[in-house]
Amino acid sequence: MVTIRQNFDLSGRNTFRMKVSCACYVEYDSPKDLETIDFDSLPKPLLHMGGGSNLLFKGDFPGTVFHSLVKYIKYFDVGSDHVPVAVGAGVVWDDFVAKTCADGLWGAENLSLIPGEVGAAAVQNIGAYGVEAGDIIAGVTCFDTVDRKKVSFKTPECRYGYRDSIFKDESVKGRYIITGVLFRLSREAAPKLEYGNLKAALGKDAGEPTPQQVRDAVISIRRSKLPDPEELGSAGSFFKNPVLSGPQFAAVCQGYETVPHYVLDGGFVKVPAAWMIEQCGFKGAEVGGAAVYEKQPLVIVNATGEASPQDVIALEEKIISGVREKFGVELHPEVEHV
Ligand code: EPU
User: What would the pLDDT profile of 293-309 be if each residue is shown by its tens digit?
Assistant: First the structure.
């Protein structure tokens, strides 16, 4: 079934809790429904939205927002080590992770408690604790709004990178509506515990943990660092962690005994933006109702519940120019500005 609403209030549909609306809002509960929609007649631009957890609306949206209510989780080949799991794009990401961990399947546990929905996770290539969605995705099914037919993408065709995929490419943006994602999970133990303090958080369970135990540890770390979406509006990490060349990294290190970093291929180094923002003295900085979250300065929060998009953008600009001045490094938002 397709539901179309005009002048729809999006305040409850974006985790930043910006008080904005869209000209038209379309929800559908089956991929087949998309074939019946007359896209030409809808206000433009078209935007497909998951849980609204990685978006900053800069104001009221003049176009049409689509939201999927396609919800299914289907296991195949139950009994073998590798378990393909087909999931509808409208399933809440953490419902999928919770179910597969409870069923003893490995693969998604490090990605516990990330807000949003499955379709958006496959666009954004969400990641945490050393794992990215693209690592466990075997394929993506879409509706092509131009050719008006179902199309499938195998994992290499999705071109997954750090918080990036083909679906974010300007040339096809908005063209493909993800309707379902195929994951490849495993019954064989495959814990990935190398990131940060994950092993420490597992404590006595770090020996031969179950997916559920890893999930519980990830949840406890996230709860201690990141704002509770029920209490405080935010869009998670606001900036990407910058990737620096050797000389750029050397410049950042000047005057510091140690600088946290991860070495990547090709001599590149990823430096936590949270560290740079903290060094600039921006922890707790405020503009209007927006603030830099004290416990994790990579996150901008709607501290008063009344922050406007302009407050958030002014704080974002202040952070970008502060980091540029101090370190000569350009930060880029991870959150999509709409
Ligand atoms: N740090 C500080 N000060 C702080 C907090 C952190 O200096 O107050 C430094 C520390 O050196 C720490 C490092 O930042 O070791 C990294 O912090 P953390 O492990 O929390 O991760 P992050 O790099 O800040 C990334 C993701 C998060 C993800 C975590 C864990 C991005 C943009 N963000 O953050 O993803 O949960 O790693 O894997 O890559 C999200 O995308 O919304 C998100 C929350």
Answer: 999 999 999 999 999 99
